[in-house]
Design brief:
With 174 residues, the chain is an all-beta fold. Helices cover 0% and strands 49% of the residues. The protein contains no helices and 23 strands. Strands 1, 3, 4, 6, 7, 10, 13, 18, 19, 21 and 22 form an 11-stranded parallel sheet that branches. The chain has a 7-stranded parallel sheet with strand order 2-5-8-11-14-20-23, with no helix packed on it. A hairpin with a 4-residue loop joins β16 and β17. The N and C termini lie far apart (39 Å).
Length: 174
């Protein structure tokens, strides 16, 4: 991103469908993901732990299972205008974040923070946190989202720190 906040370099996914694989993992550089569908993956829908700048907007991220979450991001930037639903991750079923991200205007519903048990193919909620969102940073801003119907052992809707303002948080279970 340049001084004006315009995207300058990194990975761009726009109008893409990513399904039936391992999801998207960005190991270096900035990330711009827009108007895409990321679903039915056997890992995290979108993962980047490189600490770069991210803009993830206007996507459908659903039915990803067995990874960290629907979205697992470390760094700065925005997660906005997405529908994040029916994902299962060990911590943060819908979104797991650390860094200075702004999470706004998303619908985050029916996600589970749970551990997969290979012996019976089931998911266990024990010792999981953040069914909708798991924040690992006090500088994360969670603003004006709909967070509903999510499940975890702790923090069915949201677990962790940050600024939490103007959200509709209903029907979550812990």
């Amino acid at each position: 991103y340049d001084g004006n906040g315009d995207y300058a370099s990194g990975s761009i996914f726009e109008y893409c469908t990513v399904e039936y694989g391992s999801g998207i993992e960005v190991k270096t550089g900035n990330t711009f993901i827009n108007q895409s569908t990321i679903r039915y993956n056997s890992g995290t829908g979108i993962k980047s732990t490189n600490g770069a700048r991210h803009q993830i907007s206007n996507n459908i991220i659903s039915n990803n299972q067995g990874g960290d979450a629907g979205i697992s991001i470390s760094g700065t930037g925005y997660i906005t205008g997405n529908t994040i639903s029916d994902n299962v991750g060990e911590d943060g079923g819908g979104i797991e974040v650390s860094g200075s991200l702004i999470i706004s205007g998303n619908t985050i519903e029916n996600n589970k923070a749970a551990r997969y048990e290979s012996y019976d193919g089931g998911f266990r909620l024990e010792s999981s946190s953040g069914g909708g969102i798991r924040s690992r940073s006090s500088t994360v801003q969670i603003l004006n989202n709909i967070i509903k119907g999510n499940q975890a052992a702790q923090g069915g809707g949201i677990a962790g720190g940050g600024t939490i303002t103007g959200n509709t948080i209903i029907g979550n279970y812990a």
